[in-house]
Amino acid sequence: MKTVLPAFDAAYWQARYDDGRDGWDARGITPPLRAYFDQLDVAAQPRILIPGAGRAYEAEYLHQLGFRQVFVADIAPEALAALAARVPDFPPEHLLLADFFALPNDPPYDLIVEQTFFCALDPALRPAYARQCAHLLRPGGTLMGLLFDTDFGPVQEPPFGGSKEEYREYFAPYFEFRHFETATNSLKPRQGRELFICLKKK
Ligand SMILES: C[S@@+](CC[C@H](N)C(=O)[O-])C[C@H]1O[C@@H](n2cnc3c(N)ncnc32)[C@H](O)[C@@H]1O
């Protein structure tokens, strides 16, 4: 029998923020993303999307480095409000209160950053996630970030786990795999349990 999950909609996520059930929130940028951002070329001013951004410490960090084409998307108002409060000069038009799956690709992005968004979605949406990332990126654009490579058990709400082998199937139709290995610099509670991915759109 197939389990039917409830909708993890804007109300669900806003309630998790309101109730403080936000265990995913690292309260700062995580080491694997910081290391990757530190070697990006700021002069190129890539167009960067952080979907399911939450409180978006990554956007704050990129903004501090001088990246000015950073967009964050989230369906929970709390997430975007937190970034706006911490970084008053972050462009308000780059705060997208929107469903990731409905975002337009005009113009397309150079880079999409993933961290604990994929695992927040109903697993049935995983093929659509890979397809939408490809849709939003220019050819040669990059999807990078972290995916949990662990089993959280038979849970009824996020985070949902999975495996490297499972994920490979979703991304292979659209992306070349540049890196798809266990991260070496994860936060301590996530050590050995997340993949660092860097995929190039075909
Ligand atoms: C587990 S949290 C992760 C937040 C952030 N990436 C982090 O690492 O702190 C998942 C986030 O995705 C957002 N979200 C869930 N479904 C979404 C959707 N369809 N479109 C945009 N954001 C979504 C939620 O509101 C929540 O802020």
Strand order of the largest sheet: 3-2-1-4-5-7-6
CATH architecture: 3-Layer(aba) Sandwich
What is the mean pLDDT?
95
Alpha plus pi helix count = 6
Oligomeric assembly: single chain
Q: What can be said about the biggest beta sheet?
A: 7 strands, mixed
Determine Rg (CA atoms, Å): 16 Å
Q: What proportion of the residues is helical, as a percent range?
A: 25-40%
Q: Classify the fold: give the CATH topology.
A: Rossmann fold
Full CATH superfamily name: Vaccinia Virus protein VP39
Helix/strand structural class: alpha/beta
Count of folded domains = 1
Q: What form results from the Cα inertia axes? A: globular
Describe the structure.
The chain starts with 9 loop residues before the first helix and ends with a strand. Strand 2, helix 4 and strand 3 (95-97) form a beta-alpha-beta unit. The model has no long low-confidence stretch (mean pLDDT 95). 35% of the residues are buried. The radius of gyration is 16 Å and the shape is globular. It is 27% helix and 23% strand. It has a seven-stranded mixed beta sheet with strand order 3-2-1-4-5-7-6. It has six helices and seven strands. The chain has 202 residues and is an alpha/beta fold. It has one domain: Rossmann fold, CATH 3.40.50.
